Amino acid sequence: MSSPSPLSPVSEHQQRITDLVGLLPPTTVPLAEAVGLVLAEPVVAQESLPSFDNSAMDGYAVRAADIAGASPESPVVLPVVADIPAGSPVGDLSPGTAHRIMTGAPLPRGADAVVEVEATDSGTDAVAITAARDAGSFIRCAGVDVTAGATALPAGVLIGPGQVGLLAALGMHDVVAHPRPRVLVCSTGSELAEDPVPGSGQIRDSNSAMLAAAVEDAGGVALRRLWVADDVPRFLETLDAELHAGVDLLLTSGGVSAGAYEVVKDALGPRGVEFTKVAMQPGMPQGSGRYADTPVVCLPGNPVSSLVSFEVFVRPALRASYGHPRPHRPVLRAELPVPVTSPPGKRQFRRGRLDRATGTVEPWGPAGSGFLGWLAGADCLIDIPADVTELAEGDQVDVWDLSGG
Ligand SMILES: Nc1nc2c(c(=O)[nH]1)N[C@H]1C(S)=C(S)[C@@H](COP(=O)(O)OP(=O)(O)OC[C@H]3O[C@@H](n4cnc5c(N)ncnc54)[C@H](O)[C@@H]3O)O[C@H]1N2
Ligand code: MOO
Questions:
Q1: Same structural domain, 113 and 192
Q2: Is 309 in the pocket of ligand 2 (CB under 6 A)?
Q3: Strand duo 221-228 + 294-299: pairing
Q4: Is residue 4 part of a domain?
Q5: Is residue 82 one of the residues assigned to a domain?
Q6: Residues 38 and 80 in one domain
Q7: In sequence order, which residues have a C-beta less than 8 Å from that of residue 306 and are 6 or more positions away?
Q8: Range of the domain at 149
Q9: What is the pLDDT of residue 285?
Q10: Are 214 and 282 within one domain?
Q11: CB atoms near residue 384 (< 10 Å)
Q12: In the structure, which protein residues have their CB atom closer than 6 angstroms to any atom of ligand 1?
């Protein structure tokens, strides 16, 4: 009898999946669809921000020299010769006069300070100014924020609302970014019911809904949710019909272990996809490779194994595929309030609940891979190294924060 092949370390399989999916080539994306993506090229400002000198306050545009020495006891009174609402064209201010100006309105040529309305009597024909202001007061100078010709955003920046705001202000309608990976999600198993009420021995397909949600949550696009029975020719026919140039990854669940009807393994194993056992629990049986030139990742069918495997292997690969600066979940340290055991030689990912106030993490539910109810109540994964089999109350562990990204 041949000895079983050694289990692959988690880190090795992680790298394999990240390499398989790769970095998607950059494309032009409308700004309205760019949030959550990563700039593939720097953005050079074609304009300055602000593009003209303007007022930072509602008040009066003046020459600082004209109001030097103004105080509540001896106000300086100036005629108000113009009113400048925001949106007005740039005007000209003569010495010894004031223009009433609103926040954001263009500073008239000849003015070098704005006096806020609170330091005046709010006059409309003439204004009494009760405080001196230095030249430059309450003026937002052209280019003080962003200078035309400068790099407004470097490549590699994650586009969030602030970046969208800046790009919109600069008049950019689209950006060059790595696109969201498009993932075809496919569940397998003859036990999965097509009818809303499962028949005898049948269950609902929860994995495709769950994995599609995980894809979207990772920043990808879940293209379709397919379900295929344990029937190799039908499975291959379905893939041949669905796989096309627009699919960046095929993600299957189920049919990868050692049973008599392992449709994914039976169909794709002879066609170049490699099936391995990874030294982890849950999620030991895994598959990866290419079919019809499309990257394929085959996850185990047990729902907890499926989602934990997605977290460990697929989510970081998807995020890396569009250049995300932080492909991995944040890892924290927390204290166990109870002892925990772990199988020898396997890195265990126990579901947990993190209490940030006390810095503790409680294992949430049993270690088994079918406990979807417990999974849905967890907010983190407790990462127990492969060489650790026992942890005592009070021990510190690494925790993957599933609420963070
Ligand atoms: N003799 C052995 N048996 C098993 C081994 C092994 O090494 N030797 N490995 C076990 C481990 S670990 C796992 S994990 C599972 C993986 O099995 P498969 O990937 O082949 O998955 P299935 O057998 O198709 O299903 C397992 C389980 O999950 C349920 N399932 C499957 N798909 C869905 C879905 N879309 N939605 C909801 N639930 C689903 C399925 O009904 C089964 O209960 O194999 C162990 N066995
Ligand atoms: O390794 Mo399996 O994924 O736990 O049930």
A1: no
A2: no
A3: unpaired
A4: no
A5: yes
A6: no
A7: 207, 210, 211, 253, 283, 299, 300
A8: 27-49+144-178
A9: 97
A10: yes
A11: 26
A12: 187, 189, 191-192, 203, 205-208, 253-259, 262, 282, 284-285, 300-303, 305, 369
